[in-house]
Design goal:
Blueprint (H helix, E strand, L loop, with lengths): L3 E10 L2 E11 L4 E5 L6 H8 L7 E9 L2 E2 L5 H5 L6 E4 L3 H4 L6 H12 L4 H14 L18 H13 L5 E5 L7 H18 L2 E6 L2 H7 L2 E6 L2 E7 H7 L3 H8 L15 E14 L9 E14 L3 E5 L6 H8 L7 E6 L2 E2 L8 H4 L2 E4 L13 H6 L11 H14 L16 H13 L5 E5 L7 H18 L2 E5 L3 H7 L2 E6 L2 E7 H6 L4 H9 L5 H5 L2
């Protein structure tokens, strides 16, 4: 008997089809992957299983949990199942966790609701479960809050909360999307171990097919609310009966043509910079302990060059970006951009600032949602000397939108009206509009679907060629960095541990840390992709 059976299930929102005749089965102790691009219906399938749907939704078909048709259950009946028999692990742990409650109390909550544990018993089981999912002992005491731990640790807290009541089925919705490769490998290993040791079934939702190739027994490929292909993982990857499955697999490890080659002219020089963050036990303490986050970091970027920066969370990548941008102070060393010094806390003339722009990981969070696209894209013009008429600016905005594959008519819309890939294109248009020399890409493609990621990488390569751009490409996705960069530096705990060409660093790593990162990259077996 299957733990979960979804049979001919359809879902509509105000006459709009969201899911269409979905069939899905999960057996006891089995990992089933549900893959597809954003908007394909993966998350709505998960929410439908738990009946977490808006009141205006209409559904047909059946969802069985064991031998019970839970699609017909009332909300009160479903409350007895959610968190106890079926648990859901969300994509964004910091959003899913309550910032006002300690991590231990949140993990203990399902036991207090479903298992009639005393508070003391629940806290003890919660602490044991947190330890089991790999949290360090110093984080197991009762007064640790979500914001005090890393993203990977937050995800482990969500897994502990989902597992603590020992459910029959765990639904994990993109649990590793924004994590670095080693943290991702640890989270996947943890989920696999729980499946093996406890007989838990896992429905793993992701757009990363390489992840599913490593752990899923079966895979279902979803497009536009429909399952277009389903079967044993290896069989689906080899046969690729659906054109959509072929498209997704062709986008894995996508490498755009490197049309531009670095010139011999130096654009950016970072020479032995060190930087620290202050910390204090008390809000009112007069003395602060300093933690060094960058330690004698040196790098160079030449004109037309793409330099990749890789490393785990906490390696100093984002601090390096802030320091180069002049947002974060550095204690010693120097940063020279186009023969002019960059020094945070001091006046940097607008001409120098206009030479570099940045594209962030979360394009939605980096835009003001109250402003229309025309105003958002035109923001960098305050850095450019000269008088621009409204027509001049509007014309430049229209050109920038066309260059990133959008329409000038899109300038009249708001940022929430666009998909994730379109938002990233708008962010690139904003960075491009004043024709900088250097664009810093801080995890700019890490949260995108494989096919959208391929489009953005193609766009970046084309723009680099057309405008003689240089990129500082910061990412935890080593396969992407290898495919797009001319050179790569590897960072660990604020230091550069290895540097060289992309092929040398990631194909033949020398440093133990780099070898660890490369080993953790999920890879689809070559024979599966070739069909052999």
């Amino acid at each position: 008997m299957n733990i979960l059976s979804v049979s001919d299930f359809s879902l509509t929102f105000k006459n709009k089809n969201i899911l269409k005749n979905v069939h899905l089965k999960v057996a006891p102790g089995q990992i089933v992957g549900l893959a597809g691009e954003s908007g394909s219906g993966k998350s709505m399938t998960a929410l439908s299983i738990l009946n977490l749907l808006p009141s205006y939704s209409k559904k047909t078909g059946k969802i069985f949990f064991k031998d019970s048709c839970i699609s017909d259950f009332s909300d009160k009946e479903m409350c007895r199942i959610r968190g106890d028999k079926i648990s859901l692990i969300f994509q964004e742990p910091l959003t899913a966790l309550n910032p006002l409650k300690t991590i231990q109390s949140q993990v203990a909550e399902p036991l207090l609701i479903h298992k009639n544990y005393t508070k003391r018993e629940a806290n003890q089981v919660a602490a044991d479960t947190l330890h089991r999912v790999g949290l360090p002992k110093h984080l197991l005491h009762r007064d640790v809050y979500p914001h005090e731990i890393s993203g990977g640790q937050q995800q482990r807290v969500l897994i502990a909360k989902g597992f603590v009541a020992k459910p029959n089925l765990i639904i994990a919705d993109e649990p590793t999307t924004s994590l670095d490769v080693t943290t991702q490998a640890g989270i996947l290993k943890l989920l696999e171990d729980l499946v093996k040791s406890e007989g838990v079934s896992l429905l793993l939702i992701t757009h990363d097919l390489a992840v599913l190739s490593q752990c899923a027994h079966r895979v279902a490929i979803m497009k536009s609310g429909e399952i277009v292909e389903e079967g044993e993982t290896e069989e689906v990857f080899r046969q690729r009966k659906s054109q959509y499955t072929r498209k997704l697999l062709d986008s894995v490890n996508y490498a755009p043509a490197k049309k531009s080659k670095a010139s011999g002219k130096l654009l950016l020089s970072v020479d032995k910079i060190s930087s620290s963050y202050g910390s204090s036990e008390s809000l009112f303490a007069s003395k602060q302990a300093k933690f060094k986050v960058l330690n004698n970091v040196t790098l160079k970027i030449f004109e037309r060059e793409i330099l990749g920066v890789v490393g785990e969370s906490g390696s100093g990548k984002s601090t390096l970006v802030k320091t180069i941008l002049g947002v974060h102070k550095y204690e010693n060393g120097s940063i020279i951009l186009n023969n002019k010094k960059i020094d945070a806390g001091k006046y940097i003339d607008s001409e120098t600032r206009s030479l570099m722009q940045v594209v962030f990981q979360d394009p939605y969070g980096s835009f003001n949602p109250r402003h229309k696209i025309r105003r958002l894209v035109a923001e960098p013009f305050h850095l450019v000397k000269g008088v621009f008429t409204k027509k001049d600016i509007n014309d430049r905005v229209d050109i920038a939108l066309r260059e990133v594959g959008l329409s000038p008519d899109d300038a009249k819309r708001y940022i929430h009206e666009f998909s994730g890939g379109q938002r990233q294109r708008i962010a690139i248009a904003r960075a491009l509009i004043i024709k900088p020399k250097l664009i810093i890409l801080d995890e700019a493609v890490s949260a995108l679907d494989v096919s959208i990621k391929a489009q953005i990488l193609d766009l970046l390569a084309e723009l680099a060629q057309r405008h003689a751009l240089s990129y500082l490409f910061v990412s935890h996705d080593l396969s992407v960095v290898q495919n797009v960069s001319n050179r790569v530096i590897v960072m660990q705990k604020g230091t550069v541990v290895e540097e060289g060409t992309a092929s040398e660093i990631l194909s033949f790593p020398k440093a133990d840390y780099t070898k660890k990162l490369v080993k953790a990259i999920p890879k689809i077996p070559v024979s599966w992709l070739s069909g052999g």
